[in-house]
Amino acid sequence: MNKGPLDGLRVIDLTRVLSGPFCTMILGDLGADIIKIEPPKGDPVRAQGTMTDGHSGYFAGFNRNKRSVVLNLYSDAGKSVLRRMLADADVLVENFRPGTLDKLGLTEAALKDMNPRLIVASINGYGSTGPYVDRPAFDFIAQAMSGFMGVNGEADGPPMRAAPPISDLVAGIYAAVGILGAVIGREKTGQGQTVEVAMVNGLLSLMAYISSEYFATQKVPQRTGNDHPLVYPYGLFRCADGQIAVANSHDQILQRFLDTLDLGWVMADPRYDTNSKRMAAREELRELIDSRMAGKSRDHWLQALNTAGVPCGIVQDLSQVVADPQIAAQDMVIETPWQDGPSLRVLGFPIKLGATPCTIRKPVPKLGGNTGNVLAELGYTPDEIAKLAEGGTVVLG
Amino acid sequence: MNKGPLDGLRVIDLTRVLSGPFCTMILGDLGADIIKIEPPKGDPVRAQGTMTDGHSGYFAGFNRNKRSVVLNLYSDAGKSVLRRMLADADVLVENFRPGTLDKLGLTEAALKDMNPRLIVASINGYGSTGPYVDRPAFDFIAQAMSGFMGVNGEADGPPMRAAPPISDLVAGIYAAVGILGAVIGREKTGQGQTVEVAMVNGLLSLMAYISSEYFATQKVPQRTGNDHPLVYPYGLFRCADGQIAVANSHDQILQRFLDTLDLGWVMADPRYDTNSKRMAAREELRELIDSRMAGKSRDHWLQALNTAGVPCGIVQDLSQVVADPQIAAQDMVIETPWQDGPSLRVLGFPIKLGATPCTIRKPVPKLGGNTGNVLAELGYTPDEIAKLAEGGTVVLG
């Protein structure tokens, strides 16, 4: 098994729940050594979601390729163990509310003093400066506040959140970028630095081309459901056995689409020969298109349109996605073992590296399953470890 | 001005439109030298969106911190200039359909031969292996095929896309992670490698906790609109002057929410004392809550609930986001100059680095605005450059 490009990068991971664990899982998938510090009760996600043999699939989905150490950070002895860990670590990642690290005695100055090479990454809701710094954050709220929800949904319906917690996850991926950037920068300066990503900022950054239109026109973008705001025909169309999504993003592709439907004449018809005429004649055109497509199956049209070079697909539910031969070919559903537990299905690796591919190098850790060996690596003797465990400072898994 | 942690990293950028330019902009924001190779007509996005003084805001939003070189890759002379660029570059990024690089003579073997340290990153729709490899891809289609659309939208409504092109953008961020990982790995091996991210895979990876429930239960996840599938009260509630989003993610927060509304008794009432009872009594509870909240303004509740530690916010439209004091405090709306053009507003940097923050180091380039100086850096003499320009191999901006 290859070691991954981040082999040797030691990450002390104080995060829990979603955004932080997603960030450190990405780093772990790439070969970093993720030491997940958990309180005695564990990351709350260990107890969430449906259990398989007593094991949370939700936890498995965010915590493969990590080692778990249970450490009571609210005790002086626990803080001292953490400081010893940080002394030769490369990265510290946390997703507490701003200020929590300070309360643990880990101010920026103290951390720098302890280890000037340490990269200290924080993921939070709104950022650590500004009027909302003390507000509690949550994915749903970040979707609302960032402008993201406001543009999603039917034209005559309410703003619509995305069901996946994308503000957490996007912030987690951005934090991985920032951390790796800081690691590369450190090669030149010898110095670590802070990295911060706020969920609202990360999600707002995805409004890129919608925001540029707003900046240019001062017109607030409206919801348009599944239709393209500026182009027609585009969207979902009805076949004999269900709908198909078609993205006729420009005239050349639209011509191919219409040709495939034997409607090639439309683009030359004076009623429909510009996009604005087609936008105005949406209902007519929709009927025309639906009447053609309704005669044949989705599979027929998928085949014919893809062959013609028209971007199209079906709206798959998760059972279809998981059964999709392309998803299988891309290894996007894999199994991960748990330490002393069952193997569970999880999603695969979206980043494909040719020479040192992501792989499961470490199982999903049981709570505290690596406390002993991590402490031993730090130089603690078996006696010292036993004493820390007796005092409740650490828990051996 | 600091140089950024990626200073000295030279990226040859063959990408256009969305996913690739977003990836390379992130790298450029962190200080990498992005050499954007454009065909004589330029990246099509230069002509898209509303123009300000003849300049596309859409293009500005994806192309600050880059240099533009116009190079005709379909000529032998153009290919030879590209090869000279690649000989001492660190990274090549492309978002063509799989196979296009091969057609340009840039097979994996040829590239390795040319420069074994080169990292070759590809962003595409479905990946470069598998049955769909030749299908054209597009954000809307990736949203449909990945399962993402299927979980978004009202319970009784159609599947709903997100309006921003998130499959492009998420793939772009992931590609940045993969590239930086490969750069770090190269420190140890001296060898570059390929990096690939497919839009469908990237978006599927965001289904993380939804997919783990599916894997554990085999139940296909359903759409639930803005409501939480498992928790109530949670969602949008009506105040005197509009709605407020509230995320009562667990009982402790719910108690704070109800206390703030003077409904603290609810949690102890035998009709509502478990989450399943509350789920069953949704309509009653919604009335109760709305009747309290309707008496006061959103600002009142925002203040009171945030103070109580309840995650809440309003569904902001873009004009509100841009005017939000928190967004201002986080510098999330900034100005970028164009080379020989106007300054335009664009979104700021979601990755905040303490020592070497992202900043605008290079303006949005005019088409071919850096052809001359990049060629000169490569060692071309003024005479040679003039000849290449005469023959149409390059265009000077």
TrEMBL record, chains A, B:
InterPro entries, alphabetized: CoA-transferase_III_domain (IPR050483), CoA-Trfase_fam_III (IPR003673), CoA-Trfase_III_dom3_sf (IPR044855), CoA-Trfase_III_dom_1_sf (IPR023606)
Keywords in alphabetical order: Transferase
Pfam families, alphabetized: CoA_transf_3
Keyword match Transmembrane helix: no
Top-level taxon: Bacteria
GO terms assigned for molecular function: CoA-transferase activity
Presence of keyword Nucleotide-binding: no
Name listed for the protein in its UniProt record: CoA transferase
Source organism (scientific name): Paracoccus amoyensis
